[in-house]
């Protein structure tokens, strides 16, 4: 009875992860398509805008946006953000793939099948590496985004005497990877118990 519940749950989760993988692939494709389009039309689109969004801050500009831009950095900034989008979606796809590999034996009712601990450890490394790449890419994209605007024109120099950029890394992926590595040891122990049980039978 318990095995049937496990098989059913693992199958449902696997289907959901497969759908999410499709969304991740779509995200990669859409972002990749917009990279050359931005290289061709990026400046024209931005020049016609009269609103500016800086993170959670929305600015309504008195003139067109092109008068507040460092034009040389516009394309590189947007393309950089799109590349980060591609990397982020690819990272999500890799994590989902690793999860589906772990679910494969569970769909057959074997949660402690041989090699499951290695797959969980692989998931930990996937989370660690893709998380680091995504965070570094995000920091680089933020630097490019700030260089794109002429902040001296956006800010009142009589009030704002200096500007600094402070970016802190989010270490969620390190903590998540450590938890996954710990789980791999738990499953390794489960594998050994399963092996002993099979040999006894």
Structure description:
Helix 1 runs antiparallel to helix 2 and helix 2 runs antiparallel to helix 3. The protein is built from 5 helices and 2 strands. It is mainly α and 201 residues long. It has one domain. It has a two-stranded antiparallel ribbon. It is elongated, with a radius of gyration of 24 Å. The model has no long low-confidence stretch (mean pLDDT 78).
Task: Break the fold down into its secondary structure elements and pairings.
Elements: H1 2-47, E1 51-54, E2 57-60, H2 71-106, H3 116-148, H4 151-154, H5 172-200
Antiparallel strand pairs: 1-2
Helix pairs in contact: 1-2, 2-3, 3-5
Attribute tags:
201 residues, mainly alpha, two-stranded antiparallel sheet, 4% strand
Count up the helices. 5
* Range of strand content: under 5%
Number of strands: 2
Query: Which quaternary structure do these chains form?
Result: single chain
Give the termini separation. Answer: 20 Å
Report the C-alpha radius of gyration, rounded.
24 Å
> Could you say which structural class the secondary elements and strand pairing correspond to?
mainly alpha
Helix percentage? over 70%
Give the integer mean of the pLDDT values. 78
Give the biggest sheet: 2 strands, antiparallel
Question: How are helices and strands ordered from N to C?
Answer: HEEHHHH
Count of structural domains? 1
Low-confidence stretches: none
């Amino acid at each position: 009875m318990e095995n049937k519940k496990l098989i059913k749950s693992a199958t449902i989760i696997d289907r959901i992860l497969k759908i999410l993988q499709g969304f991740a692939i779509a995200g990669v494709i859409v972002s990749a398509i917009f990279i050359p389009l931005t290289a061709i039309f990026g400046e024209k689109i931005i020049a016609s805008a009269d609103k500016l969004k800086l993170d959670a801050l929305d600015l309504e500009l008195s003139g067109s946006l092109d008068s507040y831009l460092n034009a040389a950095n516009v394309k590189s900034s947007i393309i950089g953000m799109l590349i980060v989008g591609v990397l982020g979606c690819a990272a999500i796809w890799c994590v989902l793939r690793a999860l589906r590999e772990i679910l494969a034996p569970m769909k057959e009712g074997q949660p402690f099948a041989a090699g499951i601990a290695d797959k969980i450890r692989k998931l930990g490394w996937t989370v660690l590496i893709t998380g680091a790449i995504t965070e570094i890419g995000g920091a680089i994209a933020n630097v490019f985004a700030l260089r794109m605007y002429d902040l001296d024109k956006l800010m009142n120099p009589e009030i704002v005497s200096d500007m600094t950029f402070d970016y802190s890394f989010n270490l969620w992926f390190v903590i998540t990877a450590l938890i996954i590595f710990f789980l791999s040891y738990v499953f390794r122990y489960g594998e050994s118990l399963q092996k002993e049980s099979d040999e006894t039978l």
